[in-house]
């Protein structure tokens, strides 16, 4: 059964992701470091535990997973709990790469679904841009976040959560399902 993980470190669509999870009755885990107020997007009426402990992946509930302040702490906490049925919301390409490597699915905050077909090139671009910055150069940052980005995110997240996931399809070179887009920018 699918669970939705939200990498809440600087995530502008936490509320939208929770709304889609509520609508589709998908369990949700919000992960972030302890310096953030991760509870701010969770409603007081949201269940914090599964209603039926024998079937924890049935129905909506939300758990907050606070991790240490260390670099990538939330990423590793998410990856260590993933199953191939899960979906992760992140703007971190490195985390998206690890998610895909575990056979799960990842979506960026602008609604682009990450694909095993393109993740290696995105990682290469990220690496090259990091080298430029370390050498004192500058790289172009992401475009301003828009209402169209939020709409695309909600639409594609809903589609991704509703679609059955076949882990084999993710790793044998098949293209994403109809209606899904793949990430093309490392600056997401």
Structure commentary:
- The chain is built from 6 helices and 5 strands.
- It has a 5-stranded parallel beta sheet, with helices on both faces.
- The protein has helices at residues 14-24, 73-81, 93-101, 119-134, 147-162, 167-171; strands spanning 4-7, 28-33, 62-67, 87-89, 105-107.
- It has 188 residues and is an alpha/beta fold.
Summarize the model shown:
The protein is α/β, with parallel strands linked by helices. It has six helices and five strands; from the N terminus they run βαββαβαβααα. The two termini are 28 Å apart.
Blueprint (SSEs and pairs):
Elements: E1 4-7, H1 14-24, E2 28-33, E3 62-67, H2 73-81, E4 87-89, H3 93-101, E5 105-107, H4 119-134, H5 147-162, H6 167-171
Parallel strand pairs: 1-2, 1-4, 2-3, 4-5
* N-end to C-end Cα span: 28 Å
The main β sheet shows up as: 5 strands, parallel
Q: How much β-strand is present in the residues?
A: 5-15%
Query: Unreliable runs, pLDDT <50, ≥5 residues?
Result: 167-188
Shape: globular
* Class derived from helix and strand content: alpha/beta
Give a count of the beta strands, DSSP E runs of length 2 or more. Answer: 5
What would you report as the Rg, rounded to the nearest angstrom?
Answer: 16 Å
Lateral strand order in the biggest sheet:
3-2-1-4-5
Order of helices and strands: EHEEHEHEHHH
What share of residues is helical?
A: 25-40%
The overall pLDDT, averaged over residues, is: 82
Supply the number of helical segments.
Answer: 6
